[in-house]
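This is your field. Please look over both lines of this record.
***
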Amino acid sequence: MQKAAVIIPAAGQGHRMGQGGRPKQYLPLLGKPIVRWTLEACAAARSVSQLVLVVAPEDVEPCRRWVREATGDKPIQVVAGGAERQESVYRGLAAVGEDVPLVAVHDGVRPLMQPALLDMVVFAAARHGAATAAVPVKDTVKQVKDGWVQATPDRSSLRLVQTPQAFRRELLVEAHARARSAGWQATDDAALVERLGHPVAVVDGAYDNIKITTAEDLLLAETLLAARLRGPVPGTPGASLPLTQGQAPPFTPAQSRSASVQPAGASAEETLLRVGFGYDVHRFAPGRPLVLGGVEIPFEMGLLGHSDADVLLHAIMDALLGAAALGDIGRHFPDTDPAYAGVSSLRLLEEVVRRVRAAGWRVGNVDATVVLEKPKVAPYVQLMRERIAGVLGVTPAHVNIKATTAEGMGFVGAGEGAVAYATATLVP
């Protein structure tokens, strides 16, 4: 994997936070400043070889006293930023050595970014020149003028753009130089590159990769981070709420069999739990992206199949279908159907979950194992858990992903393919 420098602009004043003028990047998040969480996440990415933190001029010396504690053995520079984000990134870019082939930019107030996401964006930039993380728009979007709806764009083509973004160094340098000479202003670096006419690749981001802008964002970040570090917290799906004396337990589907859909083929007397097992195998092939658990992993080969050949998700889908007695993925998504050619297995998983729910079941938990010799999967496991959990409608604490090798034995040990196994539980 090519190495990259990452610029973290954190020179803003955060006026919308409402904290008495205290810059939001230094506000505490579960005991540490927001920007420290961001630095630790960036430093943990395998693709990052150096970091540049851009702060207000008066914060340069105070930050230099503690930043190395956050980045370990990876070198970091602290430089003074400008009045606007674009100027701060430009000054950070000037601190990056000319021998660095790739440069990433990540907002200092996006502390929940997974290191694997940064690696994927850098990998995409190495292939395409420019890349950004983005997530699909969930809500309907309206174009409004003077208080009246003008149009309703098709949201299927709309994305909410995030950071990290990454670029070939010379491309980003040219984009900023042209912007300064022409007086262009943009809210992100990808827009400057777009102005040069260079295409920008899109990498699936994460909905929990939030930018902390308001006090409500900080509360949400605390909840998400607590769930990530310690499992479910009160008030999140799958968590138990504390009860006061005399209070009835929360109403759940498992307590309402007579009031809700009866699971297909289930009798009132049978157990309130179903277990399914899934297995899948795919061979490696050149010229294809490697997708595992809904995450594209940098590698010279991908898995061969009709869809994106995500062997891990295929095993999970079979486990879910098996638990609901709904057959297997070949029955629901045959490889003879051109509609599924190259389709994302995350989309297929969404459909499996819909059919499982239509049969009267919801997901309890998933435990899965992927077996392959290389590449290393461990850095991407947390991101896999979060993406899978988001589709299943559970928290990441209900999704377990393990990765191992075949110790050099068999076709997997020879690096010819990958195998995945999964178990899933369903409850009414």
The mean pLDDT is 87. The longest helix spans residues 215-230. The CA atoms of residues 306 and 338 lie 9 Å apart.
